[in-house]
């Protein structure tokens, strides 16, 4: 851990964060022993663009799930705050997140440094005209009795502004993530199973360019063989300690 802290202290750090960084905030992961999809395999359909577009019942269930999504009551935890501290210390280039909860920004991280690979649950997007708007406004319509609200502009199908399975990713966002990974000095993979691509492939991008790879995750990943250091300790404990060590070395 001390070695990883030294690497972080050199600056030009990029972090890739997955669901594991937000579990301490009360947001369950998807694939873990108590994950959303582990407990309810049918819930995977809610994250499939094919099922979402084809089945009105899937959309209705998705809107009901959004009403009670744990992100609405979640607050940033120690790991989110640690990355914000790293940013304030001038050591962080970017946080590339697979999460849609917005907790990095709420922790005080500069929004310009957050690359949301899978979008955000805080906005809606029309699949027909591309118009975006506040999720709160659409959820108010659901509460008022619209089980499957449509775009107020064109009447098209609405969904959260997140990337579902089978849905094309935003190439500008993906390019920004790849460039950040290519030019970093240390790459932290935090709380991610590294099984979803193209996000997982960013580890290889960073490694091929000579970056130190540090993986903080409670289970094995397909990219562990590229890691210069593997850490299995609780993220909410180890990440703040690493950041504290790195920033203290600069003072």
Task: Describe the SSE topology.
Layout: H1 2-9, E1 13-17, H2 36-39, H3 49-54, H4 56-67, H5 78-88, E2 92-97, H6 103-106, E3 114-116, E4 119-126, E5 132-134, H7 135-143, E6 158-162, H8 171-182, E7 186-190, H9 202-208, E8 212-216, E9 229-231, H10 235-248
Parallel strand pairs: 1-2, 1-7, 2-3, 7-8, 8-9
Antiparallel strand pairs: 4-5, 4-6
Helix pairs in contact: 1-10, 5-10, 8-9
Tell me about this structure.
The chain is an alpha/beta fold and 251 residues long. It folds into two domains: 1-27 and 76-118 and 169-251, Rossmann fold; 30-73 and 119-162, SIR2/SIRT2 'Small Domain'. The protein contains ten helices and nine strands. It has helices at residues 2-9, 36-39, 49-54, 56-67, 78-88, 103-106, 135-143, 171-182, 202-208, 235-248, and strands at 13-17, 92-97, 114-116, 119-126, 132-134, 158-162, 186-190, 212-216, 229-231. Strands 3-2-1-7-8-9 form a six-stranded parallel beta sheet, sandwiched between helices. Helix 5 runs parallel beside helix 10. The longest helix is centred in the last third of the chain and has 14 residues, at 235-248. The radius of gyration is 19 Å and the shape is elongated.
């Amino acid at each position: 851990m001390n070695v990883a802290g030294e690497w972080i202290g050199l600056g030009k750090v990029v972090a890739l964060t997955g669901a594991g960084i937000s579990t301490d905030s009360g947001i369950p992961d998807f694939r873990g022993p108590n994950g959303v999809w582990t407990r309810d395999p049918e819930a995977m359909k809610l994250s499939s663009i094919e099922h979402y577009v084809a089945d009105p019942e899937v959309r209705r269930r998705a809107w009901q799930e959004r009403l009670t999504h744990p992100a609405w009551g979640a607050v940033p935890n120690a790991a989110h705050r640690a990355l914000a501290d790293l940013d304030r210390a001038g050591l962080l280039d970017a946080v590339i997140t697979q999460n849609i909860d917005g907790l990095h920004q709420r922790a005080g991280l500069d929004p310009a440094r957050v690359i949301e690979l899978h979008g955000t649950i805080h906005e809606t997007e029309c699949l027909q005209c591309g118009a975006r708007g506040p999720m709160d406004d659409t959820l108010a319509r659901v509460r008022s009795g619209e089980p499957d609200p449509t775009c107020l502009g064109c009447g098209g199908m609405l969904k959260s502004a997140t990337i579902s399975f089978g849905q094309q990713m935003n190439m500008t966002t993906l390019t920004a993530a790849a460039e950040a990974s290519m030019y970093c000095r240390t790459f932290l993979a935090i709380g991610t199973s590294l099984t979803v691509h193209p996000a997982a492939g960013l580890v290889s991008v960073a490694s091929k360019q000579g970056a130190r790879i540090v993986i903080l995750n409670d289970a094995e990943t397909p990219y562990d063989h590229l890691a210069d250091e593997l850490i299995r300790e609780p993220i909410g404990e180890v990440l703040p300690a690493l950041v504290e060590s790195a920033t203290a070395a600069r003072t």
